[in-house]
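Sequence dictates fold. Below is an illustrative record:

_____
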Amino acid sequence: MRRSSFPRAEHRLAHLVRSAVLGTVLCLTLAACDDLTSLDQEAPSRIPADSLERPENAPLLVQSAIGDFECALASYVVAAGLVGDELANSNLAQVLFDYDRRAILPTNDIYSTLTCDSGTPTVYTVLSTARFSADNALRLLDVATEEQVPDRTALIATAAAYAGYSLVLLGEGMCSAALDVGPELTPAQLLTEAENRFTRAIDAATTAGDEQTLNLALLGRARARLGLGNRPGAAEDAALIPQGFLVEATYSGTRTRRENRVFTFVSLFLSGTVDVPFRDLTFEGVPDPRVTVIDAGTLGADRVTPAFLPAKYSGFDSPIPVARWEEAQLILAEAAVAAGDVAGAVGIINTLHANAGLPPYAGGTPEEVMSQVIEERRRELFLEGQRLGDIIRYGLPLYPAPGTPFYVGGEFGTQVCFPLPAVERDNNPNIPG
């Protein structure tokens, strides 16, 4: 029998461990890795070697990559929300204080090395795992044929799109990062990598006739291009997104890694609360339904901070938007202002207002309209993993202001991106110590 061109599962597992955990041999330094049986409990690493060698399992590998991204997204939304101004900490755990007071150290293992099964909001390893899983599926599909994998081209499109979204979050939230034990990459380089993945996804989805994945990748590329300062290119992609388009990350209460982390962290365990800037938001006296926040009438887990809960995520299985038409419209509005079409931007804002049942926006100077576009973004994309990137990209004022006393000691700082973890720098031979 001819041997499959797919790598043996043992080799893939070794690569998964190396890349998923910061691209280095971190189990030597982490107590959490003492029990490697956790790797056997995760798809796809628990799949027997002889099963993984069969090309027909490519759909399973792509689905696993989607699952890795969905878990990473939920975790990132909470962590980034705490660093930004969407959430405030109400947990007594010292390790989470650094998020809220914007004083994140490279030695903080919480954001850097925890996995999705930990149940704690984390960033680097989970996004690196999601990115690797999708890229690895691409590598496997590249050596397969259409005869071996009938839906190969569509699967390539899906894997490339989800690799792109993992890279977008790394580019928007990390100060720098490394891929596959490679050199230290800047946010712009990470976003460029994301744009490349999305371009591949667009090409494959077009060939496969997969409209859903095509639009997912187009909007992802628009987001990456916006982050790179290419507003015309972003608008070109965003203009192709049809009204009503929506792709969501799905969740359930079956396993920790499958739970909507925003719901469990904020509403279930009361470890976080919706921060002051997002409470009681109105427009001309009308409550904004896009940011409905519930006063729970109780205190958080720290027994000090009032608990305010996001109505947007009401259960373990509440989906989180990955990409949707409204985001595309806001990209178009920003590009319109930059191109001098202020009236066009105002029209887009008012379409979104009409859809939300809000009074129209009267408009103003280009600077005022751009400020309103940013305001619309924070409301429309509330707790979807976009706000921290906006704070960094637009250079927005921080809340609370730097220097404000933190309620358990110290003061609020200015660290709004997650630094390259010390464990990556110490163990990656391609990054100077």
Remarks:
- DSSP finds 17 helices and eight strands in the chain.
